[in-house]
């Protein structure tokens, strides 16, 4: 008898959820031989233009296929008033979209990352939820990060050691303010500045403001003094940079 149920088969492919930042760049470099698809999911946050633009450029430089998915582009517009890069449970959405494209879905989470939707424990929960809420033909084999044991400073070091250029690192993009030139004062810019500086990459003229003289430096100083610092830049190195 003809089976009238619609069937969705997930492709046998490696997918990197690709923001164009250093961590997803590194994941892509490590998986390059497997010909991964670098997937940028546009959730409609305001100021995403440059992030999307640079993600495409970085993908081109490392010779990987790049795709922008617009299927949930209204999430940011409808629920985050179109002005905020923060989307609640963002990584769960990313996992669900990634699972449309391939059986192995890589999300870049690194040592020290802290958010409720990004940790080794919660990735397992999301992976199980994705498989247990779908048919067998829709099952995926992997949804996790391969970077849990490495921090951002070591990642930059390894990218350079593998022979990739400082320019490629500077082409990567993760500024929360969304201007063409990284602002230097958001916490994402600060972490990037820290990781580049600790690897002796010259960042003069790269950031709009010198990160060490911004509110981000003050924020991290406060966190350290209050003993609340938890980040993907190791504490001793961050202290050194901040002169603490
Ligand atoms: Zn910034």
- Give the biggest sheet: 5 strands, parallel
How widely separated are the two ends? 73 Å
Question: What is the chain-wise order of helices and strands?
Answer: EHEHEHHEHEHHHHH
Count, helices: 10
CATH architecture annotation name of the largest domain: 3-Layer(aba) Sandwich
Estimate what percentage of residues fall within beta strands. Answer: 5-15%
> What is the CATH topology descriptor of the largest domain?
Rossmann fold
Bound molecules: zinc ion
Mean residue pLDDT = 94
CATH class of the largest domain: Alpha Beta
CATH superfamily descriptor of the largest domain: HUPs
What report would you give on this structure?
The chain is of the alpha/beta class and 244 residues long. The chain folds into two domains: 131 residues, Rossmann fold; 68 residues, no CATH class. It is built from ten helices and five strands, in the order E-H-E-H-E-H-H-E-H-E-H-H-H-H-H. A five-stranded parallel sheet has the order 3-2-1-4-5, sandwiched between helices. Helix 1 packs across helix 6. The protein is globular and about 75 Å long. 35% of the residues are buried. The model has no long low-confidence stretch (mean pLDDT 94). The structure holds zinc ion. The site of zinc ion has 8 residues, from helix 8.
